[in-house]
Amino acid sequence: MYMTYDDVYEEDLGLIQESLSKYSGEKAWEYFKTLYEDPDGCPLDENDNYMEHGGVNCTVDGLLSKNRIKKVEGFNEKFYETFKKYRKHPIIFFPSEHKGGINRTRATVFGDRIDYTLFDIKRHCAGEDCKMAESYELEKTKKWFESFDYDFKKIVEWMGIDGIFVNENLDVYDLEYNDERTIEEYSDKYPYDWSLEYYENVKKKVEEFYEKRC
Predict the structure, then answer these.
(1) Cα distance between residue 84 and residue 72, in whole Å
(2) Residue 79 scores a pLDDT above 70
(3) Do residues 61 and 114 touch, judged by C-beta distance below 8 A?
């Protein structure tokens, strides 16, 4: 039987509790990291099914990694509650590429920011210059875009993030703010260390997704 996203997610929750019961401080964190399995690459059910479009399997892009949660919350009961809440339901899916795909490239290009990633994807769909063009031309990713006819609206509706991460005009919300401000152009820099405001606003968007789609 395949280990599904839910299977690994539940095992990780148990591992967090085990780590905190056995050790404290950084020793507990190191124990957890050693045994941790990332659920994002797992199938969604026991029949080895993935989120798919146009014959292309897609894997989860977890918006809040364990490292990001730990940096803000520490490794404690708060970490457990945050991981449990915000990693329960997959949200964002991108084509599963062995190397150089959107999931991995956005970390180096945009500091792992999903808002600028979506902005870049929108520009690609419109035939405009974009920063992750090489990723978009990979075989499976290109086929994925073609299956949507390079229509950004179709992509965000397929993910179910319309009206949440983008507004009714398909403008991408700038998650550095919580005032419906949208991204109009690229930034000068994309630090990998998020601000606390960005981290909290990502959490709010996840909550909004759960409320509307789950």
Answers:
(1) 15
(2) yes
(3) yes
Name which of 99, 139, 98, 135 is nearest 120 in CA terms.
135
Output the pLDDT for position 98.
83
Helix, strand or coil for residue 65? coil
| Residue 7 CB-density burial (10 A; 0-12 exposed, 13-18 middle, 19+ buried) | middle
Cβ-Cβ contacts under 8 Å for 108 (sequence gap 6 or more): none
Contact 150, 180 (CB under 8 A): no
- 63 C-beta neighbours (distance < 10 Å), count: 21
Query: Is the whole model's pTM more than 0.90, yes or no?
Result: yes
Backbone angles phi, psi at 165, to 5 degrees: -90, -15
Q: What are the backbone dihedrals phi and psi of residue 209, each rounded to the nearest 5 degrees, phi first?
A: -60, -45
Unique residue bearing structure tokens 């124990």: 31
In this prediction, residues 155-159 reach a mean pLDDT of 98
Q: Is 177 helix (H, G, I), strand (E, B) or coil?
A: coil
Choose among 27, 26, 35, 29: nearest CA to 8. 35
CA 22 to centroid of chain Cα atoms: 30
Q: Identify the three-state secondary structure at position 83.
A: helix
